[in-house]
Design goal:
The chain contains 19 helices and no strands. By secondary structure, it is mostly helical.
Length: 478
């Protein structure tokens, strides 16, 4: 089931909301169970075959977590439980996500005839990483004892289940335990509707609207120089508004239930360097990779050389997390190289005179954006050969068309760029503060006028009218 679908908007969401708040009048546990069951129903529409796998994963990690939380086990047995739990999670993820990739590479290297066709469960990467973080924190003594219904809801909570954000138990479970979230809050419901409407418009109006231009670079026809750039930039902005739209919609839906999700997207194309980009793009994944991979590897604690090695390992695995293909590995490797160069420049680069600061910042912004676009070509391409071919056309200005159609396409690209670069993002418009659990508290005077509500309602209506059949979010594939 998609957030941008009529059954979800007009049937599933209203029914779940009404049931949640109706049960909230009778106690604190019933609405938690209701929401967990509703999340399983939501998941079953996409992957009914794998509901039992999801439930098995929840039970396995909850039991492992109980053993790790227990103070009766000594250090060695606790480490064994952690190793067993994380290995089990990664083994399941590896079988479903990477077995086919592994078999294909064995066939290519040794001319074997292995055939592996395994359907990938939607959202398995997200709920696996969510639970690995839980186990590691339980081992570190940072987890309190949680009841099974609250833990199950933490993992299966439908606004995040399919495409993130990667949740942290410390953020979410206390909210699920709170009695306050079980009572309808008109302010949060209104703000949730507004944020949902903005996200829906980003998806159906902006992301889906520019999707046809992507084929100019990645379609069956050989692209010219200008068409290769238009297609690559179109995908750059399609992915941006698709992921931004999903993130907004997830936050908006959750707000209606009185639950604050962590930010996962913060205008990454406004970043002035690649370090800043990764603080803004898929923020919860960046935090997970930092806290549970980069820092345990040693981070920057063992000298600059090992720091760069750790960065490369982290980004290579981060790329592979996105998909079982060499294109994702190369995408991760590119960002690893970008990060190493960025850190090396900060540590060893020349100081910039104040009079050149503005020009330097603009140059850094442009360089960062172009580097991101180049990497997105590998992210989108079907193969390394296809990606390299598109990049070769982007680097060859001798083959150019730039007719009337290309001029119109370029205007569209510039409009999208202007929105991404200069428009305020949703959290700035709505004053969304996940850490302090506030939204809409510091709205500007114009936002408090009725016209703001009317414009938002119009955006929601246009978003609903723009819904296309089977228009999945791009991150559903990961």
């Amino acid at each position: 089931m998609l957030f941008n679908s009529y059954p979800f908007i007009f049937v599933f969401l209203p029914v779940v909301l009404l049931g949640y708040f109706a049960l909230g009048r009778r106690g604190n546990l019933a609405p938690v169970i209701w929401l967990a069951l509703a999340s399983l129903v939501f998941y079953s529409f996409s992957n009914w075959q794998f509901v039992l796998l999801l439930l098995g994963s929840v039970a396995f990690n909850y039991l492992a977590g109980l053993l790790l939380i227990s103070r009766r086990l000594r250090a060695a047995p606790r480490f064994t439980v952690l190793t067993f739990g994380v290995t089990g999670d990664l083994l399941v993820l590896g079988i479903f996500k990477y077995a086919g990739f592994f078999a294909a590479n064995l066939n290519a290297l040794f001319a074997t005839g292995l055939v592996v066709n395994i359907l990938l469960p939607v959202g398995i990467s997200f709920y696996t990483f969510t639970q690995i973080a839980f186990l590691v924190d339980a081992y570190r003594g940072k987890v309190a004892h949680y009841a099974l219904p609250h833990y199950a809801l933490f993992v299966t909570y439908f606004p995040h289940l399919i495409a993130g954000p990667i949740l942290h138990h410390r953020d979410m479970i206390p909210q699920f335990e709170s009695a306050e979230s079980k009572r309808p809050n008109p302010h949060l419901i209104l703000c949730g509707l507004i944020i949902f409407g903005i996200g829906l418009f980003k998806k159906t109006g902006l992301a889906d609207g520019i999707q046809p231009l992507v084929s100019l670079a990645f379609g069956p026809v050989t692209p010219s120089f200008d068409r290769a750039w238009i297609g690559a930039l179109a995908y750059t902005f399609q992915l941006y508004f698709d992921f931004s739209g999903y993130s907004d919609m997830a936050i908006g839906i959750s707000l209606m239930f009185g639950i604050f999700l962590p930010l996962n997207f913060n205008s990454p194309y406004k970043a002035g360097n690649i370090i800043d980009f990764w603080r803004r793009w898929h923020m919860t994944l960046s935090q997970f990779l930092r806290d549970y991979l980069y820092i345990p590897l040693g981070g920057n604690r063992h000298g600059p050389l090992l720091r760069y090695v750790n960065l490369m390992i982290t980004m290579l695995l981060g790329g592979l997390w996105h998909g079982a293909a060499w294109t994702f590995v190369v995408w991760g490797a590119l960002h690893g190289v970008y990060l190493c160069i960025n850190h090396a420049w900060i540590n060893y680069g020349p100081a910039v005179a104040p009079r050149f600061a503005r020009a330097t910042n603009i140059a850094a912004f442009i360089l960062t954006f172009v580097a991101v676009v180049v990497a997105w070509v590998f992210f989108r391409a079907d193969s390394l050969a296809s990606a390299l071919f598109v990049l070769s056309r982007m680097a060859d200005p001798t083959h150019i068309v730039f007719g009337r159609g290309e001029i119109v396409y370029s205007v569209f690209i510039m409009i999208y760029a202007a929105i991404a670069w200069f428009a305020p993002n949703t959290q700035a418009i709505m004053g969304y503060d996940h850490k302090n659990r506030t939204v809409g508290e510091q709205l500007s005077p114009w936002q408090k006028r009725p016209v703001f509500i009317y414009v938002t309602a119009a955006v929601l209506v246009f978003g609903i009218l723009g819904i296309q059949q089977h228009s999945e979010f791009i991150y559903f594939r990961f």
